[in-house]
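2 proteins. here.
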Amino acid sequence: MTGAVTGVPASPGRALGPARLVRSVDDFGRLRPGDVLVCRTTDPAWTPLFHVAAAVVTETGGLLSHAAIVARECRIPAVVGAADAMALLADGAQVLVDGALGTVTGVTR
């Protein structure tokens, strides 16, 4: 099924890459350069991933969340508060993140 996930536009820009679902610190090693980091939330321990990811999508958060602030600092697109992103985005599926519109398209699952 193809569709879109929407959330809060938190850091502008567009990025295309494979969605990489990261559930915990144990999954950090799965993220490769150019992947789109998809997770429930982030905290300071997750900051190094922002230097690897092409974009970030979180299920929780707003404009002042950790993910939003760090994404802006790293100048990568971010969509936060995207409810059910972990369930709707298939790991490895190509997605387009638009951080200005707050959309993630190309969803397959």
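next one coming up
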Amino acid sequence: MPTGVALRDPREQLFEAAERILLRDGPSALTSRAVTAEAGCAKGVLHRHFADFDAFLAEFVMERVGRIAPQAAALRDAAGTGTVAGNVTDALTALFESVAVAVVALITFRDELRARLRDTWPAGVPVLTEAVTMIAGYLAAERDLGRIAAGADVDVLAPTLIGTAHLLFADRTGPPPQTAAVHRMVSSVLAGTLQAAKR
């Protein structure tokens, strides 16, 4: 795209380009030149909107993390419906089939990005910590409804579920795990906490 041609939403267009590259080619392929080429815009567009490439990546990560909030709200609203294991399976599959796994790889890959994110996100990896909060909130709601045992420690169950799911989905070069495999893992982690008739 020639310089001077207006983009519909330059920041989001650049974010979408970064996501496509990240999913297709991995974090090592994510450069400012690759992003602007993928977005079909002049190289200077990225630097007009962001101080530098790591500032762009930090905002990209935080914007993608922000997308977890609606997923978390929908999951909380599902409390009391379906089965607990089924709801958690669906939520984990939706989360890890999105750009989440690739974003975790990107944060791990780039030291400067991790340093930038620490300014606004002092502990943990943004995508994973938000995912833990989402699952813990849902499990707490189910515990309040009596579908999970009153003594269930959701603050231990949630990171266990997220960590194990991340391992299942981590290899983006092969096919994603089948729903049955994710459900089996969820059921195993939650075993002993689910009320018998409401699993």
